[in-house]
Amino acid sequence: IATGSASVVHRHKLAESGVGRWLRVAIPTLSFFEFLHIRNEVLPPIPDSLRPNDLFTMQPRDLRELATHFGALMPLFLRYLLVGGFPETAGQSDISLCQRLLREDVVERVLKRDMTSLFGIRNVNDLEKLFIYICIHSGDIFAVQTAASALGISHTTVSNHLEMLEQANLISRLLPAAIGGKKILKARYKIYLVDAALRNAVLLRGEEILNQPTEMGTIVETTILRQLYAYHYQDNPTIAYWRDAATEKEVDIIVKSPSYILPVEVKYRETADLNIKEGIVSYCEQENISKAYWITKSPDDFGVVEFAGISCKFLRVPAHIFTYLLGQAERLLWAN
Q: Distance between CA 287 and CA 275 in Å, rounded?
């Protein structure tokens, strides 16, 4: 067994030393489920085999009871969104200390030291400016030329540094998904940080963001994406987003493998009504999807929604419940 944080170096060395003799296991930041365990928190009295997919067949009264059990975890979920899934910060009580530790670890060590030595970056200031730009625009469709103009650096430098940041496990890039096998003529990435707490730390965002719907939407979407990556890791899926240029309808995250397509839309706000005009409904109808997730904020916004003439079932599920059960399901996968 060999471990280490310089995964870029290890990956190349393992490839050179013999295909088939190494099994590479990526270790992402802690899931919400793991975050609670490492803090030794009291867990809800629910079956330890319950997975998100099981919620589609539960009765409304059982979902209401489940939401009640999870009620005590909401403050801890908000804490998790602020400090992220890093073992060093999980048990800390001082949020400002957590953020200082993350800034020192990511900006000072990873960006300014590790990536400079690994990739031979000559102008670390350009890399740092790009990383801050990504923190500000995390979850947005990323235009390389727009970023280059805003930062005053070349198009080539931005493209190269994006590749390096992805290899260093600091960002994830999502390509757009096509419908019906159509080719996308102008494919543009959406870029996310691997953990929303990095964004909070770099931009000095504290507890005040808990009352800012736009900020919270970005943070929760980033968190959901991280946990979907971790849960579906063994399937090696394609994770994408969908946007219709004509109607501007979107789906935040689509997990695609040969055996399934799983659309996920994050609507972390007080009112998150799901209607037939939403992008996720259009996508599921056109792609003949059977199940999709609509991630909400309120514990009361919980249940299965169906529309006449559309075979897909849409599960409205609060984010803290979905992330907990996804983390529990991830543990069950590795246990087997």
A: 18
Residue 134's Cβ-count burial label (10 Å; 0-12, 13-18, 19+) is: buried
Q: Residue 63 and residue 67: Cα distance in Å, rounded?
A: 6
Q: What is the pLDDT of residue 143?
A: 93
d(C-alpha 55, C-alpha 190), whole Å? 29
pLDDT in tens, 285-335: 999 999 999 999 999 999 999 999 999 999 999 999 999 999 999 988 877
The pLDDT, as a whole number, for residue 335 is: 72
- Backbone torsions φ then ψ of 186, nearest 5 degrees: -130, 85
DSSP 105: I
* CA dihedral angle for residue 258, residue 173, residue 81, residue 27, rounded to 10 degrees: 70
Evaluate whether 333 touches 234 at the Cβ level (below 8 Å): yes
Task: Return the bridge partners of 253, or none.
Answer: 264
Please give the helix or strand (H or E) that residue 144 lies within, else none.
helix 144-151
Q: Characterize 150-184 residue by residue with b for buried, 16 or more Cβ atoms within 10 angstroms of its Cβ, and e for exposed.
A: ebebeeebbebbbebbbbbbbbbebebbeeeeeee
What is the phi-psi region of residue 134: left when phi exceeds 0, alpha when psi lies from -120 to 50, beta otherwise? alpha
Q: Which helix (H) or strand (E) holds 77?
A: helix 74-83
| 156-181: pLDDT as tens digits | 999 999 998 988 888 999 999 877 65
> Tokens representing 273?
């009504």
Tokens for 129, please give them.
């400016």
Whats the size of the chain, residue-wise?
336
State how far the alpha carbon of 157 is from the alpha carbons of 118, 141, 151, 172, in Å: 16, 18, 11, 18
Q: Which of 160, 158, 162 is nearest to 172 (CA)?
A: 162
For residues 182-193, average pLDDT: 77
Q: What is the mean pLDDT of the chain?
A: 89
pTM of the complete model beyond 0.85? yes
CB 336 within 8 A of CB 40: no
Determine the pLDDT at residue 5.
57
